[in-house]
UniProtKB/TrEMBL annotation:
This is Ribosomal protein L11 methyltransferase. S-adenosyl-L-methionine binds at residues 160, 181, 203, 270. Its EC number is 2.1.1.-. GO terms for molecular function: protein methyltransferase activity. InterPro entries: Ribosomal_L11_MeTrfase_PrmA, Ribosomal_PrmA_MeTrfase, SAM-dependent_MTases_sf. It comes from Wujia chipingensis.
Length: 334
């Protein structure tokens, strides 16, 4: 099917009224582009770790929507033009230009698969999609099969590579590992294959947890070795539903002694610096003394923020590794 993209050049002031008009006409969704700067509250909520490009707010905006063949495009276009003329008597509506373009209805949920091929890391670790075979397999390879679906993580990003390298360096056979922000479960599964006695992966996204569980099954890993749960340590200070690991529901600000049922030799968190910084204040009770806090997902410009936070929360920074613009910081619990 071919879709028609309809774009209206207008003003920020008129965006809401135009969006409401399109909704009345049966359009099920709109995309708005403008130059209105994000507030500090917006930026904090987004956990953005990539520098934002600030444009000049000139008051202009674009409202776009995608129309299928159930609409009469020319009739809709004429109706929009008439509505813009009516609104112009009350508010600025901009140039009122309406442009049309066609886009093919592709299988976006699956087309990305053509770009995901087996990845070899550190010579003996292979991450492969379920639909590919490993052509250069070696007898001692650790092979992880994965179907990422809509969960983040295929193993190709520098941050994942950094965490894998640190797990190879610090994980000892039998260690207990806590993977905070497990995504598709890659780090949890690799930790298990590297010899961890037990791995607990956690994510705030239920879909990510579901994907991790399915990927563990693909790799024949049972719940006696690896388990996933949904929870948000920063929001609730507890590990969420679907798990037997429960904490005192008091917040970290109210008590310094949490009733933690299980402590780990290693906590690994491949997230963002702006999450790792507050996480370092609550993760200590989950670690055994001298346990390792392996972190990545950190842009080099945020390295000092993370190391300072670790030091302020009872960790000795013992290792910092760079890969292009990304950094892995490892702390040891004192």
């Amino acid at each position: 099917m071919m879709w028609t993209k309809l774009t209206i050049d207008t003003t920020v002031e008129a965006v809401d009224l135009i969006s409401a008009f399109l909704d009345e006409k049966g359009v099920e969704g709109v995309m708005i582009e403008d130059h209105v700067p994000l507030t500090e509250e917006d930026k904090a909520a987004m956990f953005v770790d990539i520098p934002l490009v600030d444009g000049v707010d000139d008051g202009t905006a674009k409202v776009s929507c995608y129309i299928d063949d159930s609409f009469n495009i020319e009739t809709l276009r004429a109706d929009i033009a008439a509505e813009l003329t009516r609104l112009e008597a009350f508010i600025p509506v901009g140039s009122k230009n309406i442009t049309l373009s066609n886009t093919e209805d592709k299988d976006w949920m699956n087309n990305w698969k053509q770009f995901f091929h087996p990845i070899r890391l550190y010579d003996d670790i292979v991450i492969k999609p379920t639909w590919e075979t490993v052509e250069d397999a070696k007898p001692d390879d650790i092979v992880i099969e994965i179907d990422p679906g809509i969960a983040f993580g295929t193993g190709s990003h520098e941050t994942t590579k950094l965490c894998i390298g640190q797990l190879k360096k610090y994980l000892k056979p039998g260690d207990m590992v806590f993977d905070v922000g497990c995504g598709s479960g890659i780090l949890s599964m690799i930790a298990s294959r590297l010899g961890a006695g037990f791995v607990h992966g956690m994510d705030i996204d239920e879909l990510a947890v579901r994907a991790s569980e399915e990927n563990a099954k693909l790799n024949h890993m049972g719940e006696d070795k690896i388990k996933f749960s949904c929870g948000n340590l920063l929001a609730d200070n507890y590990i969420g539903k679907g798990t037997t690991f429960q904490l005192d529901r008091s917040t970290i600000k109210e008590t310094q002694h949490l009733d933690v049922d299980r402590q780990y030799d290693i906590v690994v968190a491949n997230i963002l610096a702006d999450v790792i910084v507050p996480l370092s204040a609550v993760i200590g009770p989950y670690l055994k003394d001298d346990g390792y806090f392996i972190t990545s997902g950190i842009l080099d410009v945020k390295e000092n923020d993370v190391t300072d936070a670790m030091k302020a929360n009872g960790f000795e920074v013992i290792d910092v590794v760079h890969m292009n613009d990304w950094v892995s910081v490892i702390g040891r619990k004192k």
